[in-house]
């Protein structure tokens, strides 16, 4: 059985629980990251779809959390992909976005198997916005939240090394 992170309805940290038949059988991956890091593109790639918003602009594309239940890799088992608003927002809306994210996860999603934290490999430093977001999530969901985080990198350029794409 896989572990699921049950998101409580109160401000108290929720305990990690083991998935059971009474819980939603749909595995859930929730993507976190800075504005423009490629959260929507990553989800579109994972699900082989174009339903998650993307933008080539500097402005935030995702201003409200969104989720879809789709077949993994286009033809696999059903999974829920959750695209959250980016932190380090171009218009300084981080506080509101974090509140909306927490509310959406608690009311609409309820449980998450994996938080995929995406970092832009072309940016050598981790900023205060990332730290603030992780601290806010930890304060709401408790320290066990961190055991459900996977770190991924976008914009990794292997072509400079002659590696096949």
Automatic annotation (TrEMBL):
Residues 1-23 are annotated as: Disordered. GO terms for molecular function: GTP binding. It holds the Pfam family AIG1. It comes from Chrysochromulina tobinii. Residues 28-161 form the AIG1-type G domain. The chain crosses the membrane at residues 135-154. InterPro entries: G_AIG1, P-loop_NTPase. This is Aig1 family. Keywords: Membrane, Nucleotide-binding, Transmembrane, Transmembrane helix. It comes from the Eukaryota.
